[in-house]
């Protein structure tokens, strides 16, 4: 064992890393590149630096705006986009490959249907997130984005039909708080918990693991809303938690600082984090330990239930 640290064990969360929507978006992009010549990804295919960089290195274009794409095929990312974006692509004569996650499309459909039936929608989500922008774009005059409980409390009276939806990657406990407050404030409100199963599973797995470890590490990029939330939940439970983009971000001082006393590390990763970054973090932790340490993997879980959708939505 390295002098100054007592690291003995790494435990991986029951659910971590790539979700089905991210895997689908990446393979659709790879297929598109193999099949067509000029391909441009609108914004980031998924919110992970390594994946974005990988596509850049492969010579695939990336553009913030449709207006800047000069012909060829555009790939709409996993977070989706508003109908305006699809219209603009058509006007510019671009071929479109839609890699929007089916669970994001499900929210588009719910919001559209509610708006057509005269509802106003409160959407619990991050204001500037690409997924939110796409959802709002499906009923711009009918959706109010509510990023937190304070924003909900600041709203005035709303008469008539009202519904609540949420970002697929929202914090589950945050949604519970919002729906309770919304129900009190607007008794007529109808609730649609549209947090996806992948988000749910990863948050529950973190809550199960974090109380038993001395330090939690979450592998994921700053741009990834679900990774950031996993790190916040970990910190609230375990006290010591870091969001790391890759193995290089893991500092040996975290383990050897006076009073650190870290024997067991919990490891998780956001839904857009590739396996090689998680493997890299494990190798880095082994290197810091300086001796053989135990790595506890969860049993392999099926991703099929990530697609579970309530029929009445
Ligand atoms: S986090 Fe959920 S909604 Fe987002 S891509 Fe993954 S499965 Fe789809």
Please, could you describe this protein's structure?
This protein has 313 residues and is of the alpha/beta class. The chain folds into 3 domains: 9-18 and 197-296, Cobalt-precorrin-4 Transmethylase, domain 1 (3-Layer(aba) Sandwich); 20-101, Rossmann fold, CATH 3.40.50; 103-191, 4-hydroxy-3-methylbut-2-enyl diphosphate reductase, catalytic domain (Cobalt-precorrin-4 Transmethylase, domain 1, 3-Layer(aba) Sandwich), CATH 3.40.1010.20. Helices cover 39% and strands 17% of the residues. Helix 7 (172-185) links the parallel strand 8 (162-166) and strand 9. Helix 8 (197-209) runs parallel beside helix 9. It is flat and about 60 Å long. The structure holds iron/sulfur cluster (SF4).
Present the secondary structure layout.
Blueprint: E1 9-12, H1 20-35, E2 39-42, H2 49-57, E3 61-63, E4 73-76, H3 83-91, E5 95-98, H4 102-116, E6 120-124, H5 130-136, E7 143-146, H6 149-153, E8 162-166, H7 172-185, E9 190-191, H8 197-209, E10 215-219, H9 225-238, E11 241-244, H10 253-256, E12 264-269, H11 275-289, E13 294-296
Parallel strand pairs: 1-12, 1-13, 2-3, 2-4, 4-5, 6-7, 6-8, 8-9, 10-11, 10-12
Helix pairs in contact: 4-5, 8-9
Bound molecules: iron/sulfur cluster.
Iron/sulfur cluster (SF4) is lined by residues 19-22, 78, 101, 103-104, 168-169, 196, 198-199, 226, 271, 306.
């Amino acid at each position: 064992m390295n002098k100054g640290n007592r690291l003995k064990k790494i435990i991986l969360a029951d659910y971590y890393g790539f979700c089905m929507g991210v895997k689908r978006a990446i393979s659709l992009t790879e297929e598109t590149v193999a099949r067509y010549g000029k391909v441009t990804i609108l914004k980031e295919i998924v919110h992970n630096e390594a994946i974005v960089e990988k596509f850049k290195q492969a010579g695939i274009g990336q553009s913030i705006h449709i207006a800047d794409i000069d012909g060829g095929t555009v790939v709409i990312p996993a977070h989706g986009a508003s109908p305006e974006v699809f219209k603009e692509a058509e006007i510019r004569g671009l071929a479109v490959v839609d890699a929007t996650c089916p669970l994001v499309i499900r929210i588009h459909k719910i919001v559209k249907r509610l708006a057509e039936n005269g509802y106003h929608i409160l959407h619990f989500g991050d204001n500037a997130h690409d997924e939110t922008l796409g959802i709002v774009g499906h009923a711009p005059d009918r959706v109010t984005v509510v990023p937190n409980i304070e924003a909900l409390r600041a709203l005035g009276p709303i008469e008539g039909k009202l519904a609540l939806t949420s970002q697929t990657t929202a914090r589950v406990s945050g949604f519970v708080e919002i729906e309770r407050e919304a129900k009190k404030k607007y008794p007529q409100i109808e609730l649609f918990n549209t947090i996806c199963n992948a988000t749910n599973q990863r948050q529950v797995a973190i809550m199960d693991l974090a109380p038993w470890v001395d330090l939690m590490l979450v592998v994921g990029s700053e741009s990834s809303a679900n990774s950031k939330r996993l790190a916040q939940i970990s910190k609230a439970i375990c006290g010591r938690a870091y969001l790391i983009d890759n193995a290089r971000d893991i500092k040996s001082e975290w383990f050897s600082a006076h009073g650190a006393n870290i024997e067991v590390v919990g490891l998780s990763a956001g839904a857009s984090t590739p396996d090689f970054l998680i493997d890299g973090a494990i190798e880095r932790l082994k290197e810091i330990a300086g001796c053989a340490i135990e790595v506890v993997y969860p049993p392999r879980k099926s991703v099929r239930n990530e697609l579970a959708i309530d029929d009445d939505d």
